[in-house]
TrEMBL record:
Organism of origin: Corynebacterium callunae DSM 20147
Cited InterPro entries: HAD-like_sf, HAD-SF_hydro_IA, HAD_sf, PGP-like_dom2
Cited CDD domains: HAD_sEH-N_like
Lineage: Bacteria, Bacillati, Actinomycetota, Actinomycetes, Mycobacteriales
NCBIfam families membership: HAD-SF-IA-v3
Superkingdom classification of source: Bacteria
Name of the featured protein: Uncharacterized protein
């Protein structure tokens, strides 16, 4: 196995803090129709890959949810604001670890499923450390979302190294399996301590 010199990180659940239950609760409050929350969540998750990949606009995404879940009171702009609130916060420990790899001479990149509006918020809030990375690959910019293989191919191209030299780190097993299918080494992220153990034995 080729010894890697390049590390590719996911955003949410790895470099950025994630609060999926809280995120959905904010959306539910914005919609204000408790009896339809289960249906809303189902459609929210079903259509999300197309939003993340930029195949539909944010307004169209929420209008589709409104139509299919029969949400009488949903305001798309209010839903977008609720959906993105608080999602720009980095995990300082993980960011410092990634930057330490960069300082040690490794190439560092990000591959994230993220809608265009949220990507702009995240980049603005985290510019100081994101500017130090070698590649930022966002699903909204490439027309593909993990675990779709073109997303990994785009990240490999952006990093400019063979897939076998890349270690991909993500908190979702399906994305890790897809990265391996694309030829990368990959680990499911659970904690920094576990990641360090995984990398020691790569």
């Amino acid at each position: 196995m080729t010894k890697p010199n390049t590390y590719l990180f996911d955003f949410y659940g790895v470099l950025l803090k994630q609060d999926a239950p809280g995120q959905l609760k904010r959306v539910f409050r914005a919609v204000g129709e408790p009896e339809k929350e289960t249906k809303l969540q189902e459609i929210y998750e079903e259509l999300r890959p197309d939003l993340d990949a930029g195949r539909v606009s944010e307004i169209n995404y929420w209008n589709q949810i409104k139509l299919r879940a029969q949400l009488e009171f949903l305001d798309p702009q209010e839903a977008i604001s609720a959906d993105y609130a608080g999602l720009e916060e980095a995990d300082p420990e993980m960011v410092n670890f990634a930057l330490s790899l960069k300082q040690a001479g490794h190439h560092i990149g990000v591959l994230s499923n993220i809608p265009k509006g949220l990507a702009q918020i995240v980049k603005h809030h985290n510019q100081s450390w994101l500017d130090q990375l070698d590649a930022l690959v966002f699903s909204c910019d490439i027309g593909a979302a993990k675990p779709e293989l073109p997303a990994f191919h785009a990240a490999q191209e952006a990093l400019g190294v063979p897939a076998s030299e890349i270690v991909f780190i993500d908190d979702r097993l399906e994305n890790v399996e897809a990265a391996r299918e694309a030829g990368m080494q990959a680990f499911v992220f659970t904690s920094l301590a576990q990641l360090k153990k995984d990398l020691e034995h790569e």
